[in-house]
């Protein structure tokens, strides 16, 4: 097993690799996982071929960390600010199959959000699985509250063929129509038809994504009360930054999220939770 510093698209990154052949790449910018290739299988994360690596913009693809605000639900920049900042490796906290990156509050973050914090992203690679954990410590004297998402872009081979299992019976908010439609029947799989932007109550068991690349289990810790499912569809995709017009056909975001009720963290307290992706054997 090994962890090494590399340059990926001109930006500093860390590569993890296992003797079995599994590989993952994490950029320091945004502490963003940009690639996960389980041994013997295809790339499982979508990274836009038009992604910008300028050390400022949020990179389109992989696993952007959206914190301390989900989407535009508050006064901060969309999806918060940590996806736009360079995080620092914490080598002593990691090992050959785990990368840990940290970000503390700074003058720049306090100008946007007046709180003291120590955030960590822990990326763990194991044979046929990848775990991404966010930990947030309140290092200040006052409580703070946040919403967030691990905005995982899963790579798929064809949007028309993909099915997401495990959301049956769960209430959801449809952000495209701003409605609360009836849940999917229990046991039914979600097929993606056009622009899809939904905030589901978290499922009690892992979801399964199925398409021509195989089956992937998507688990999230119970601290994530919601799971969001996003695909821009053809029309919106054509207008999105850092995205080819047909990019929506190869990606589906399934996000471990806290959207509806902000998490409150008291001084000295730590909040932590992970999303785990695992290849389901054929
Ligand atoms: O383009 P961004 O800022 O990365 O956001 C992408 C999408 O992120 C999703 O989580 C939201 O539900 C969508 O509404 C949003 O458009």
Automatic annotation (TrEMBL):
Active site: 151, 255
SUPFAM superfamilies reported in the protein's UniProt record: Galactose mutarotase-like
First-tier enzyme category under EC: isomerase
Gene Ontology CC entries for this record: cytoplasm
GO biological process: one example: carbohydrate metabolic process
Enzyme Commission number(s) of this protein: 5.1.3.15
Transmembrane segments annotated in the record for this chain: none
Highest taxon in the source lineage: Bacteria
Keyword hit for Isomerase: yes
GO molecular function, one term: carbohydrate binding
Catalysed reactions listed for this entry: alpha-D-glucose 6-phosphate = beta-D-glucose 6-phosphate
Keyword Isomerase appears in the UniProt entry: yes
Keywords assigned: Isomerase
PANTHER family recorded: APOSPORY-ASSOCIATED PROTEIN C-RELATED, GLUCOSE-6-PHOSPHATE 1-EPIMERASE
Family: Belongs to the glucose-6-phosphate 1-epimerase family.
Listed name of the protein: Putative glucose-6-phosphate 1-epimerase
